[in-house]
Structure formats: structure tokens, C-alpha cells
């Protein structure tokens, strides 16, 4: 304790202080002194004068010091629990606590609680302050033993369980065990209960060790539920030769069973079916853990197709017409291709006026949308005796008989016409004979040729092969 003294003497030349604890000081009018211990001390002030006279003055100084002791509710606790601490002190008005774990606390209350988060041995200390502001440490600190929580391990025999099946859970690290939730467990007070949950469940076990410290552990158990397999489409109607994409869903693995004819894949959720006839496709699906399986079906109907006949092949002279006759035995929508030389393409009996041999495809589509096709060949007859070469024509621009058209042959390889003096007036190669635009219009270099007799030479080719020639004269009349 620090005490300040003041010398009020007069007419002195020397000063000597005796503080009563074995400590002295000289020649100080206002000395200060620290008393290390509580007690009653006699302070003596001696002053001396110039004539050798001296005088003394004494005063009693009482040094008080608070005293305290420290105790704990329990000398050992578990980490996370509250330590109950209590001080016993006389005249103390304030308490400062050092809990030994790096934290301090204080207040006017002689009791306090503290939570230790980690295990270990902690030395507790206490300072008390009395009404005079004097502070002292408790006579002796105490040791607080904090036990760490038990180390809990929790495992399961499998990370999942099929519905209506069970799995064994296992916990370790303590002496006693308590499981929550209790539903689906055969026991809740043993280390290894058997769990049969109906839904995904997170189990928690509280483990207590030999000294009563606790810790918890958790483990999640996934419950595999029955699956519901779907497939699209459920039904399908196809024309013969058509295909349909099938898609199954709701499982992890898939297998198409029983009737697999016409399937592109039998071990996938997606398959393309091209059946030869009506029938049912069945798919089975299994979950990823092989707990449950389900099946689904697709009913496929093959629709009827019309029986289409395009008629018998025909032969016709170039420039002549022939009626084609298709039938299907039922009402159908007709389509002919190609459209070249046909009077219609959406009728059953188009008129064909070919300029070359043709093969036509007649397609009939019924009300169900299914179609069938047949072919017919229109062949141009090729006979030199049936080729008609006009002996004359009248290129006067009246729209009648204005061009010299060769009939009865499809293709002309080469045609040349000469005037009376042997000069060439017209020549053309490789053209369709029945097309008037390809034929001679009675001009020479764009000018009308004079009336008269002209000589021609024709080289013709049959579609099936073979070449023959004709020559003669033609009269131009104006």
C-alpha cells in the first residue's frame, strides 16, 4: 500500500524518517512509502536544529489488506459445461477472475460461472478489491480439470436400405448410447441398433463416456422407394415399314423383354421400333440399387395398306395418247410421278401423251394414311413402217400445218433438208420428233423459203436401240 507523508515542522535544519517497517529516509519533506504487508506501523519523524537540538513526532499507520479464498463447485467438468466458481472474502466489493484459458471476468458478485470449450487443466486466479480500493490475490488458486468430449464415430452397414428392409447402424466412443429418432429402430440404447426406416432418415446418437461427458454423431440413411415406370407412347398405329421412337422413364436401368423383334436397342430407355406386325413391346426398369423393378407396355397396331395396281405396261406411237388405269380396290388418294406428259397426277386414270418412253409410279393413300405404289411403263413404239413423214406443209402463219412434224418416232438423231440446187436449208440433231418447236418451219436463215420441192434425209433411233434412216421429198406450199 502506498502512503504519502508530509513534514509540518519549523525551524529545523535536518530531517529523518523512520517508517516503522525497517525502512528510513532523510531530508524529504513529503516522502511516500509502500507497505508490502498489512499491519500496524509506528512512523517516527526526527528533526534537528542548528544549535544541536532535536525533536521527534510519531504516528501510527494501520495498513489493511483484503483476504479471500477461491472454490469450485466441482474440480472436474466436461468441455461445454458451466464451471461454478465461488469466492470467500472479507470486506471485498469487487472480484476479478482469471479463468486460465485466456479469458477473464469480473463484477461485485462473489459467485460466477464459466464455460470451457476445450479440454485441459486450467489454473484459476482471483483478485479482490475492498472498499478502500485495496486489491489482493486469493490465498491460493485452484486447478480446474476440463475433460474433452468423447470422439464419436458412426457408420452404417450400407448407405441405403430398400423399403421394408433393414440396415445395422454402429456407434463407438463412449459407454452409453441414446439414438434419435426412435422410429424404425429395434433398440435406442445400444451401440448397434437395426434400422428399418420408411423414409430417408438422419439418425443422431448421443454418446456418454465414463465420466459423464457427452458428444453426438449423425448418419443419414437413404430409403429406396418402389419405382413407377412409364413409357411413351402407350399406343401407336403404324403403316407397314414405319417406325416409332419409344421412351421409358422412372428407373435407372432398362431392358426390353419378350417381343424384341424390330427394336433398335433392348438395353436402353430409348429404342426405335419398326415392327413387322401388330404386337406389344414390354420394358422393365430397375432402380440403381436393384431394390425394385416395374414394367410398362406399348401396344402397336399395324394399319392396312391399299392394294395398288398401276395397270399393265403399254406401247404407244410417239404423239399418240393412251389412258392409264390404276386401281386399289378401295377409296384412295392418287399421286402419279413424274408428272411429265400426264393430263393429271391426282386421278386414277390420267391420259399420257408421251414424247419418249416413260416409267410412272402410281401411289394410293388410304384413309388411315398408309400408301402403296406400283409402276407402269409407257413405251414408245419404234417401227419404220409406222413413221409418218408429211409429203408437204403450208408455213403461211395461219396456225395450221405451219411446221413439218415427223410422227411415229420418239427421237431423231439427225435431220437435214436440201433445196433444189443442193444447198442445205435446215439441219438439227438429237431432238424429240413430236415437239413442233424442234421441227422445220419452212424458213432459210430466218427468211421464208420459196414454194417448191425439197429433199430430206432422216436418221432415227429407237428407245430400245437400233437406228434406221429415211429419205424423200417434201413440198412447201404458200
Structure summary:
With 478 residues, this protein is mainly beta.
Radius of gyration: 62 Å
Number of strands: 42
Which percent range describes the beta-strand content?
over 45%
Instruction: Give average pLDDT, whole number.
Output: 92
Characterize the biggest β-sheet: 6 strands, mixed
Structural class: mainly beta
Architecture (CATH level 2) name of the largest domain: Sandwich
Unreliable sequence segments: none
Distance between the termini: 158 Å
| Total DSSP helices | 0
Describe the structure.
By secondary structure, the protein is an all-beta fold. It has 6 domains: 2-63, Immunoglobulins (Immunoglobulin-like); 67-147, Immunoglobulin-like; 153-224, Immunoglobulin-like (Sandwich), CATH 2.60.40.10; 230-302, Sandwich (Immunoglobulin-like); 314-380, Immunoglobulins (Immunoglobulin-like), CATH 2.60.40; 384-476, Sandwich (Immunoglobulin-like). Helices cover 0% and strands 50% of the residues. It is built from no helices and 42 strands. The strands form 12 sheets. Strands 8, 10, 11, 13, 14 and 15 form a 6-stranded mixed β-sheet that branches. It has a 5-stranded mixed β-sheet with strand order 36-42-41-37-38, with no helix packed on it. The chain has a 4-stranded antiparallel β-sheet with strand order 3-2-5-6, with no helix packed on it. Strand 2 and strand 3 (24-26) form a beta hairpin.
Amino acid at each position: 500500500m502506498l502512503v504519502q507523508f508530509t513534514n509540518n515542522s519549523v525551524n529545523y535544519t535536518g530531517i529523518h524518517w523512520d517508517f516503522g517497517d525497517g525502512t528510513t529516509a532523510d531530508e524529504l519533506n513529503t516522502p511516500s512509502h509502500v507497505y508490502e504487508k498489512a499491519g500496524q506501523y509506528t512512523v517516527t519523524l526526527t528533526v534537528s536544529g542548528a544549535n544541536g537540538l532535536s525533536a521527534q513526532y510519531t504516528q501510527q499507520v494501520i495498513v489493511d489488506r483484503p483476504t479471500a479464498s477461491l472454490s469450485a463447485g466441482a474440480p472436474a467438468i466436461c468441455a461445454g459445461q458451466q464451471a461454478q466458481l465461488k469466492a470467500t472474502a472479507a470486506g471485498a466489493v469487487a472480484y476479478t477472475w482469471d479463468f486460465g484459458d485466456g479469458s477473464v471476468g469480473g463484477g461485485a458478485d462473489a459467485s460466477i460461472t464459466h464455460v470451457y470449450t476445450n479440454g485441459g487443466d486450467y489454473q484459476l486466479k482471483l483478485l479482490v478489491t475492498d472498499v478502500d480500493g485495496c486489491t489482493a490475490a486469493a490465498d491460493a488458486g485452484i486447478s480446474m480439470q476440463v475433460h474433452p468430449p468423447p470422439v464419436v464415430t458412426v457408420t452404417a452397414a450400407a448407405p441405403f436400405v430398400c423399403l421394408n428392409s433393414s440396415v445395422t447402424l454402429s456407434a463407438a466412443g463412449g459407454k452409453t448410447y441414446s439414438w434419435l429418432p426412435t422410429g424404425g429402430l429395434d433398440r435406442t440404447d445400444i451401440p448397434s441398433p437395426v434400422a428399418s426406416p420408411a423414409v430417408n432418415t438422419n439418425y443422431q446418437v448421443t454418446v456418454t463416456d465414463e465420466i459423464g461427458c457427452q458428444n453426438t454423431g449423425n448418419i443419414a440413411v437413404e430409403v429406396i422407394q418402389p419405382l413407377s415406370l412409364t413409357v411413351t407412347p402407350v399406343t401407336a398405329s403404324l403403316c407397314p415399314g414405319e417406325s416409332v421412337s419409344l421412351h421409358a422413364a422412372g428407373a435407372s436401368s432398362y431392358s426390353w423383354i419378350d417381343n424384341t423383334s424390330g427394336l433398335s436397342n433392348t438395353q436402353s430407355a430409348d429404342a426405335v421400333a419398326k415392327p413387322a406386325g401388330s404386337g406389344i413391346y414390354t420394358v422393365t426398369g430397375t432402380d440403381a440399387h436393384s431394390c425394385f423393378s416395374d414394367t410398362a407396355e406399348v401396344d402397336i397396331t399395324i394399319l392396312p395398306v391399299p392394294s395398288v395396281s398401276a395397270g399393265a405396261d403399254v406401247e404407244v406411237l410417239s404423239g399418240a395418247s393412251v389412258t392409264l388405269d390404276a386401281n386399289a380396290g378401295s377409296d384412295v388418294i392418287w399421286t402419279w410421278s413424274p408428272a411429265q406428259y400426264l393430263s393429271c397426277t391426282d386421278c386414277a386414270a390420267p391420259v399420257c401423251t408421251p414424247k419418249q418412253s416413260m416409267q410412272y409410279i402410281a401411289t394410293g393413300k388410304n384413309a388411315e394414311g398408309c400408301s402403296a405404289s406400283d409402276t407402269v411403263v409407257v413405251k414408245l413404239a419404234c417401227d419404220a413402217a409406222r413413221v409418218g413423214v408429211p409429203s408437204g406443209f403450208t408455213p403461211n402463219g395461219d396456225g395450221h400445218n405451219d411446221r413439218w412434224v415427223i410422227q411415229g418416232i420418239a427421237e431423231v438423231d439427225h435431220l437435214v433438208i436440201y433445196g433444189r440446187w443442193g444447198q442445205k436449208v435446215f439441219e438439227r440433231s438429237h431432238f424429240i420428233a413430236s415437239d413442233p418447236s424442234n421441227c422445220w418451219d419452212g424458213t432459210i436463215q430466218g427468211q421464208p423459203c420459196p414454194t417448191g420441192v425439197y429433199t430430206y434425209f432422216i436418221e432415227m433411233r429407237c428407245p430400245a436401240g437400233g437406228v434406221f434412216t429415211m429419205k424423200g421429198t417434201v413440198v412447201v406450199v404458200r
